[in-house]
Amino acid sequence: MDALSGVLAALGVEADRLEPTRAEDEASFGNGNWHLWTPNGEHHILRRYHVLHTEANLAYEARVLEHVAARGWCVPVQVVPPVRYDGHLWAVTRFVPGRPHREETAAQRAERGALLARLHADLRGLDLGPREGFFQAADLDAMGEFQGWDRGVELLREQRPELADRSERAMQRAKELVVAHDLLGLPQTIVHGDFASWNLHFDDDGRFAGVIDFALCHPDSRAWDFVIARVHRAPEMIDGYQRAAADPLSDRELAAIEPLQAVLRVLMVMAELWDGQHIGRFDEAMIARQLAKAKS
After folding, report:
1. What InterPro entries does the database record attribute to this sequence (predicted)?
2. 99: in domain
3. Do residues 236 and 109 lie in contact, with contact meaning Cβ atoms separated by under 8 Å?
4. For the chain, what is the total number of helices (H) and then of strands (E)?
5. Under DSSP, is residue 78 helix (H, G, I), strand (E, B) or coil?
6. Domain end marker among 47, 63, 94
């Protein structure tokens, strides 16, 4: 509580109680969240954003959240707008009740696909232009420049030359897949960016309660939203989506999912390289796992 008192003062918020949602969030470059109860009993979330976030891209996220909230979704809209403190942007957002399924059943995975179809339908036609600091996942050149891929590989090579070589091969293969499948030419919409099981909340009776973490929402392909939602572990999502969608995925979009899986693995390596450059050490085991999945 003492460490966060300056944040609360900057936000102009009085808290009766704070509890971290995850202990590991307290010291990282990434997003962090604390349950916040006000003296009058209101329950919100105090959110710390990743250091790469800016005021402009958080304003973009806020507009997306307001748009879907107006269409009946329970989402973490801003209660108190962001302020900058200690190198991060912080805000207070709505608390979304419920909890994720502990382990999704096949029917629940199909339900997640149907919910994604509903979300895409509600986002269709919302044109906010590009989001600052965000690119199509398949735009590996832009992503690599933004996150310092070349420098990361160079530093990794000093420690593990073979991992650096494998990383470069994985990147080259992914770029070839982008061209071969015209992944940059897929139809665009605003995507959630992380419609994974852990970001969907349900009440004690299993009824859908809301969705959280729009931190990665940006214009991209619907196929990418499936990939980042870990469709390889939840193939029933596609059936649920196709049944529920007024505009089902096209054959071209369905065919894009597999090559985009390779893109995802390269982006996971890229994120590890970015972290390593700023922390001062690389998680070599994680990089090796992602490269194994990329089949480099």
Report:
1. Aminoglycoside_PTrfase, Kinase-like_dom_sf
2. no
3. yes
4. 10, 9
5. strand
6. 94
Is the separation of the CB atoms in 175 and 259 below 8 Å?
no
Q: Are 270 and 193 in contact (CB under 8 A)?
A: no
Name the pTM for this structure: 0.94
Query: In angstroms, what CA-CA distances link 230 with 48, 78, 183, 238, 259?
Result: 25, 27, 18, 11, 14
* Total length of the chain: 296
- Asked if residue 120 is part of any domain, the answer here is yes
101 domain-assigned? no
Question: Total structural domains in the chain?
Answer: 2
Query: Which run of H or E residues covers position 191?
Result: strand 189-191
Got the DSSP string for 196-224? -GGGEEE-TTS-EEEE---TT-EEE-HHH
- Please write down the long-range contacts of 34-42, taking CB distance under 8 Å and 24 or more positions apart: 34/4, 35/95, 36/92, 38/13, 38/14, 39/14, 41/16
Q: Which segments within 39-109 are labelled E, that is strand?
A: 43-48, 78-85, 88-94
Q: The domain containing residue 51 runs over which residues?
A: 2-94
Q: What is the dihedral of CA 265, 270, 274, 279, to 10 degrees?
A: 40
Cα–Cα distance measured from residue 142 to residue 150, given in angstroms and rounded to the nearest whole number: 12
Residue 89 and residue 149 in one domain: no
Segment 19-69, tens digit of pLDDT: 998 876 666 667 899 999 999 999 999 999 998 899 999 999 999 999 999
In angstroms and rounded to an integer, the radius of gyration of the C-alpha atoms of the chain is: 20
Taking a C-beta distance cutoff of 8 angstroms, is the pair 172, 106 a contact? no
At residue 83, does pLDDT exceed 90? yes
Six-digit token pair at 95? Answer: 């608390």
Contact 88, 48 (CB under 8 A): yes
